[in-house]
Specification:
Blueprint lengths: L3 E5 L9 E6 L8 E2 L6 E6 L2 H16 L17 H17 L1 H41 L1
Length: about 140
């Protein structure tokens, strides 16, 4: 199970260990990403397997809008690092109890993500084809 460090990301800092970034500002707070956000936390882990586990846990929490109850701020909502750490660590602790089920969920989420990317690619191709056909009408 993953051992990790959570801290606030500072721009121009390069992390040599395995890591992901978690957005901490706006309605998409909690969104995990491999590339840094301007306003984000960084979760540093020890190996690739832990990185995958932490990424998919963060992804599932973000997609289920788990962090919305923890947002502060009246104009631009944000997620405090203390609140994030407390809740994220408790979720990782729960994950440790049923790690096999978590692995099954990760595989299912990966398949769904691949299907979504495939459908998005097909939609892009359909839109390009539509634009080409409509362009031929205006050309005549």
């Amino acid at each position: 199970m993953p051992n990790f460090i959570i801290k606030t990301h500072k721009q121009n800092v390069v992390y040599t260990d395995y890591h992901i970034y978690i957005l901490n500002k706006g309605l998409n707070s909690g969104k995990p990403q491999k590339e840094p956000f301007a306003n984000s936390f960084v979760v540093i882990v020890q190996n690739q397997d832990d990185l995958e586990t932490v990424y998919w846990l963060a992804y599932s929490l973000w997609k289920s809008k788990y962090w919305h109850i923890s947002l502060c701020g009246s104009v631009i909502p944000f997620l405090r690092i203390g609140e994030f750490k407390k809740n994220f660590i408790s979720k990782v602790t729960l994950l440790r109890m049923d790690f096999e089920q978590h692995k099954k969920h990760i595989n299912a989420l990966r398949l769904l993500e691949q299907q979504e990317q495939h459908f998005q690619k097909n939609l892009t191709l359909i839109n390009e084809l539509r634009r080409t056909i409509l362009h031929n009408y205006t050309k005549q």
